[in-house]
Amino acid sequence: MLQCKKVAKLVGIDYGTKRVGVAVSDESGSIAFPRTTYANDSTLIPMLVTLIRNERAAVVIIGESKDKDGKDNPVMAAARHLGSDLEQAVAVAVHYEPEFYTSVEARRLPAQAGGVPSNAVDAQAAAIILNSYIVRTKK
Question: What mean pLDDT is predicted for residues 50-54?
């Protein structure tokens, strides 16, 4: 019988000023799947806390957005603030994964009939970020 190594699930976040994409890994932490997109408003933290608790995730991966010179772009300060809020609210480890044009990449992914729907781009971008982290840290 084939057994999967049981590890805590991971949650990936593609942070944006208007929308925040979310992805969740499988039970073995080996692949990410787009989950949902939340509005970046006063409901964001409670919605993320609920999702993290329901998934029993131990680690959150937030896309680390840099400018062309390798410095944090203006959105990154807010993304780091989100990470800090989540660490305090859920006692979860937060890591940052470099991301470059993940939303553009998500729009280019094929779907059954003509690409990723516009309402799913941010969640797909979160899955790209989370999969990048999984591949980079795989042992």
Answer: 97
